[in-house]
Give the backbone structure.
Amino acid sequence: MDFLRTKASRTQLSEIVYATFNALLPVVVLLLVRAFDPPYLALVVVLLSKWRILALRPRFWWANLKSNMVDIIVGVGAVGLIYLAGDNLALQLFITALYMLWQLIVKPLSSTHGNMLQAGIAQFVGLVVLFSFSTVMPEIVIILGCWIVGYVVARHVISNYEEPYLELWSSIWGLVTAQLGWLLFYWTVAYGIGIVAIQIPQIAIIMLVLGFSGARIYHMHKHETLNKGLLRGTILFTTALLAIILIFTPWDASL
């Protein structure tokens, strides 16, 4: 009994330490971004926070890396967004609070819909930050980044199902993201949010709509609840949203 109590106490202590670390990481990132320009040290801290990827034998490293890529994309994206906020301390604090919310509430989710939420956030944040730096980064970096984001988020969602073609479908979604990224790299449109310095590139919104619809159809298909009515309704809803986005797009604007 004493052994069991000691083991339970150690488990609770480790959980408290882990939660504390997750809560402090966004604060440390904020301080490093404000202290150093460019924020390379903040990026290093985010990457070092994933040290457990290498805690197992080397043959597990690649699998662990792919499993943690969604969290890495959000962490790197948080650094980018805080940096893009410039001297706007209020906006930086808001982004830091959102990153802390991710660390403490969203990241621990393990349900199917929780993983979909994580993937959607990672895709949106990743594409926003990627295209926000598209004016200072080579075309190949942007396209490759789009493929990585698309592949990672698709794999994160599909891995919850018994899918024999996991890598194939993930790669296809990555290819779709990369192709759209290539097109919009030359015709980048962004939407401003009031006085906020950060703008939302159109590709992030389009891929969010397509991703939601694709995940919904795939989920219904895997649970054998998909019928012609639901499929038609989802496609019509997606088409209508995309039409609204494209029709009301100020095509003379750029990021």
In short: The mean pLDDT is 87.
